Amino acid sequence: MVWCLTFSERAIGKKQTVAQMVKTTRQERSMVKSLSFFLFFLSLAPSPVNSIQAKDITRHTISLAWQQPEKANGVILEYEVKYYEKDQNERSYRIVKTLSRNTDIKGLTPLTSYVFHVRARTAAGYGEFSAPFEFMTNSGEWSIAQIPVMMSQGH
């Protein structure tokens, strides 16, 4: 007996019996009733995030934003942001997960450089982390985005 099975993307990760997926005669159905398997599709994880921007920086918070990976290879389920103090060299890092393409990293130390990496996750798994992006918290209560710009004309 030869079986030819065709699968749709809706069946990814669902446990299906062969009898549910193939129309058979009653006799054949009884022969395969106990057979079951887990169906997986080979698909690629997302490509790395290309760049990270600091939209706002204060003493204790850095607001980050990024674009979707060039090759999402599916629906992005979440993003993972890994960050650490620059002088720690990944010895001690934190992870923040978010559904959106931006997040506020809070509880940071003033006048400290932090390194950030972002990666995306689809049904196929996590992509690679982005290249490192470094931003430094400031020393005042004001935000980098709120610094007044003084313009003067030459005399």
CA distance, first residue to last residue = 94 Å
How does the helix and strand content classify structurally? mainly beta
CATH architecture of the largest domain: Sandwich
Radius of gyration: 25 Å
What's the main sheet like?
5 strands, antiparallel
GO cellular component, one term: plasma membrane
Membrane topology: Single-pass type I membrane protein
Protein name: receptor protein-tyrosine kinase
Enzyme class: transferase
Task: Describe this protein with a few key phrases.
7% helix; five-stranded antiparallel sheet; mainly beta; receptor; disordered C terminus; 155 residues; three-stranded antiparallel sheet; EC 2.7.10.1; 2 domains
Notes on the structure:
The chain folds into 2 domains: 9-38, no CATH class; 52-145, Immunoglobulins (Immunoglobulin-like, Sandwich), CATH 2.60.40. 7% of the residues lie in helices and 32% in strands. The chain has helices at 18-21, 26-32; strands at 15-17, 36-38, 52-57, 62-66, 78-85, 94-98, 102-105, 113-122, 125-126, 133-136. Strands 5, 6, 8, 9 and 10 form a 5-stranded antiparallel sheet that branches. Strand 5 (78-85) and strand 6 form a beta hairpin. The longest helix is centred in the first third of the chain and has 7 residues, at 26-32. Residues 45-140 form the Fibronectin type-III domain.
